[in-house]
Amino acid sequence: MIQPQIGEQLVGAYLRIVDDCDLVSYNQRSKEAGQQMELDVLGVGTVNGNQTVYGCEVVTHIDGLHYNGTPDTDEWAAYGNEDYQYTLQHLQEKFKQDYTLLTNVFDRADTFTLQFWSPVVPQGYLTDGLAELQRRFEADHNVAIDLVINGEYADRVKHLRQEASATQKSYDEPAFRFLQILEHLRDD
Hints:
Layout: H1 6-17, E1 23-29, E2 38-47, E3 50-58, H2 82-105, E4 111-118, H3 125-141, E5 145-149, H4 151-166, H5 174-183
Parallel strand pairs: 3-4, 4-5
Antiparallel strand pairs: 1-2, 2-3
Helix pairs in contact: 1-4, 2-3, 4-5
């Protein structure tokens, strides 16, 4: 099993503590031969008998979101340099794979929510491109992608810190436990 990265653990803690998911799992891979699909964080929650499945892509590049490569198509040519175009193309493919994996495995779920978590995304071409990716994906698949980037990412981590300061209960989420320790430090 691949050990989840700290950014993934923060997202998993948010899903468990704030979104009240019953199940949180990390680095899920498709069992289909030849498929390299991997989902960073999976969350499953049930409220009033309705099952919601969360599929989260997490990119914790603190120097800014970017993947290096050359795009295969010019689909994203309007969105800056080739690294931005490649990043958008790469993320689009990841979301298609995530959606396929989730809808195949959880074919009876009531709601699917895809999320993209990244603390530092440059404003401009990349944020505009992500908004366009979000719009296209919703139109094509009838599933929205929640962009948890920049200020929204910071707000959710602050919310998680507030939850950590308000409880001493263990949730078996390492990132949340770390926040609890920090929030309960004593100076005396």
